[in-house]
Design goal:
303 residues, alpha/beta, 42% helix, two-stranded antiparallel ribbon
């Protein structure tokens, strides 16, 4: 919030006592969050667990920044947000979408949001993110909880709530009207057509509403058909592909790497094409990323 203050406002704040200035700043941040809930994310008010088992403010990586940019572009055009995201693992896409769900639901009134994952473990994992955002959100931005259990996070006074279910329930969400829906690991859903028949009608086609389907790949199933339809622009869903090499942690020492080395057979066959693609996207350290890819395929993907 402080970076958006005008110079005259900043000057006025400096003339106030620390206590009064702090209260005024908190009030301004609250007003901004209500007008633009995404400021909770962009101003670093939400916290996440890291791979190192620590808590830190959510700081957007390349993939998260790209997805948020597409969402903001839709909002700027006053269009409903309908996204179909095909992602690599560990890019933080679910983390970002949960942050968006929490930001809007915690700052705006009369809003129902819905989280649905492919199984109960996935739903619980995502829901715990929302609860952590709530727990660690600064007090002046954090709404009072009315109810928090394994099925919903409901906020006092503003009449907004986040609900959770699994894709194993083909009638999930049919009883509600939602503004935001997050479908996680969508390609692994058991009843996708039955589920979407109800959910699509539970979300009005209005500006600001969101249906975001994100998933890793799962062979050539219903998701592949939906993806191809979106690519051909035969519906309103925007297809977003997030490749593995956008993750900065996916790098290893080159150690004499020869791109496309025939000694590695199928493992290195696509490396030249991948190297060219990364260079065309101005991706740094392409050799280190290819070295990580060789290691990952051999050790994490059974070759």
């Amino acid at each position: 919030m402080t970076k958006t203050l005008t110079s005259s406002t900043s000057s006025a704040l400096r003339r106030l006592t620390p206590t009064v200035a702090g209260r005024l700043l908190a009030s301004l941040e609250k007003q901004e969050a209500q007008a633009n809930p995404l400021s909770l994310i962009e101003d670093g008010h939400l916290s996440i667990k890291t791979a190192e088992a620590t808590l830190q403010p959510l700081c957007l990586n390349c993939a998260q920044t790209h997805v948020l940019g597409v969402i903001k572009a839709c909002l700027a055009k006053n269009k409903p947000v309908r996204l179909l995201i095909l992602k690599a693992r560990q890019l933080g896409v679910s983390t970002l979408i949960e942050a968006i769900v929490y930001a809007y639901t915690s700052q705006q009134s009369n809003l129902n949001s819905f989280i649905i994952a492919d199984d109960i473990d996935g739903s619980n994992y995502l829901f715990e993110m929302s609860k952590l955002y709530q727990e660690k959100c600064p007090p002046h931005l954090r709404p009072v909880e009315k109810r928090s259990n394994e099925k919903k996070l409901e906020f006092e006074n503003i009449h907004s709530q986040i609900l959770v279910d699994t894709a194993q329930n083909e009638g999930a969400g049919r009883k509600y009207t939602f503004r935001l829906v997050h479908l996680s690991e969508y390609a692994f859903f058991k009843y996708p057509k039955e589920l979407m028949l109800g959910l699509s009608q539970a979300v009005p086609s209005l500006p600001g509403t969101m249906i975001i389907k994100e998933t890793t790949a799962n062979s050539f199933n219903f998701f592949k058909e939906e993806w191809d339809t979106a690519v051909r622009k035969e519906n309103d869903y925007i297809p977003i592909f997030l490749p593995w090499y956008w993750e900065e942690r996916y790098r290893m020492s080159v150690d004499g790497l020869v791109i496309g080395d025939p000694l590695f057979g199928e493992l290195s066959k696509a490396e030249a094409e991948l190297w060219t693609r990364m260079k065309s996207e101005d991706i740094s350290f392409p050799e280190e990323r290819l070295a990580w890819r060789r290691w990952c395929v051999k050790n994490n993907c059974d070759g």
